[in-house]
From TrEMBL:
Enzyme Commission code: 2.1.1.6
GO biological process: catecholamine catabolic process; developmental process; dopamine metabolic process; methylation
Keyword Magnesium recorded: yes
GO CC entries: axon; dendrite; membrane
InterPro entries attached to this UniProt entry: Catechol_O-MeTrfase_euk (IPR017128), SAM-dependent_MTases_sf (IPR029063), SAM_O-MeTrfase (IPR002935)
Gene3D superfamilies registered for this protein in UniProt: Vaccinia Virus protein VP39
GO molecular function list: catechol O-methyltransferase activity; magnesium ion binding
Protein name: catechol O-methyltransferase
Cofactor section: Mg(2+)
Family: Belongs to the class I-like SAM-binding methyltransferase superfamily. Cation-dependent O-methyltransferase family.
Pfam families membership: Methyltransf_3
Length: 233
């Protein structure tokens, strides 16, 4: 798994970037703009999956774990959802297509280049009315959610950013009173690359009830899993 990732993420990607004079993320966006149906979020998701499984690996949640994400979102039926780690906008489009009328998703991205790609992806998918992209570090944005973005509490949180931020950001969500009884957290990549501190924290905490969903790393047969943590108050 690690060797494959190093090949895909570092060696192959850098060579291709140099030859084509553009980033992998720009190539993913271009492929979507040329091959997906504008205003159709399912088509956008399927087209990204096609590119990343056939052409270049990328760190989207992917089609296999995407079904776990879908099921969790449908069960939570959120009015206000938060995503930490937008990347190219894949999971923001995937989540938003399942939101009920009037519901909204706030998605946080630290990398300005990724945020610019994601913004175009979200608009092309036609879900910009449901999704608000917030650019900056999660530890700065989370404390602003109540006042600046008029969030009372969050019904659903998808953690898919820096793995070492999973635990401190979960604690921050609690400290900022952004979780209510029944709020659902779903964390990706808890085996590969792994988030052992987060698993230890939520599984030992009396405030969370946890469920583990074994799966595979996006577009690979490498073992991975997602962890659902329901806040008990």
């Amino acid at each position: 798994g690690t060797a494959a990732l190093i090949w895909n993420e570092i060696i192959r990607e850098k060579v291709t970037n140099f030859i084509m004079n553009q980033s992998k993320e720009q190539r993913i966006l271009n492929f979507v703009l040329q091959n997906a149906v504008r205003g159709d979020p399912c088509s956008v998701v399927d087209t990204i999956d096609k590119y990343c499984s056939q052409k270049e690996w990328a760190m989207n949640v992917g089609n296999e774990k995407g079904l776990i994400l879908d099921k969790t979102v449908e069960e939570a039926n959120p009015s206000v959802a938060l995503e930490l780690g937008t990347y190219c906008g894949y999971s923001a489009v995937r989540i938003s297509r399942l939101l009920k009328a009037g519901a909204r998703l706030l998605t946080v991205e630290f990398n300005p280049e990724f945020a610019a790609i994601a913004k175009q992806m979200i608009e092309f998918a036609g879900v910009q009315d449901k999704v608000k992209l917030l650019e900056g570090p999660s530890e700065e944005i989370i404390p602003q959610l109540k006042k600046k973005y008029e969030v009372d509490t969050l019904d659903f949180v998808f953690l898919d950013h820096w793995k070492d931020r999973y635990t401190p950001d979960t604690i921050l969500l609690q400290e900022c009173n952004l979780l209510r009884k029944g709020s659902v957290l779903l964390a990706d990549n808890i085996i590969f690359p792994g988030a052992p501190d987060f698993l230890k924290y939520v599984r030992k905490s009396p405030h969370f009830q946890c469920t583990n969903y074994p799966s595979h790393l996006e577009y690979m047969q490498v073992e991975d899993a997602m962890e659902k943590a329901v806040f008990l108050g």
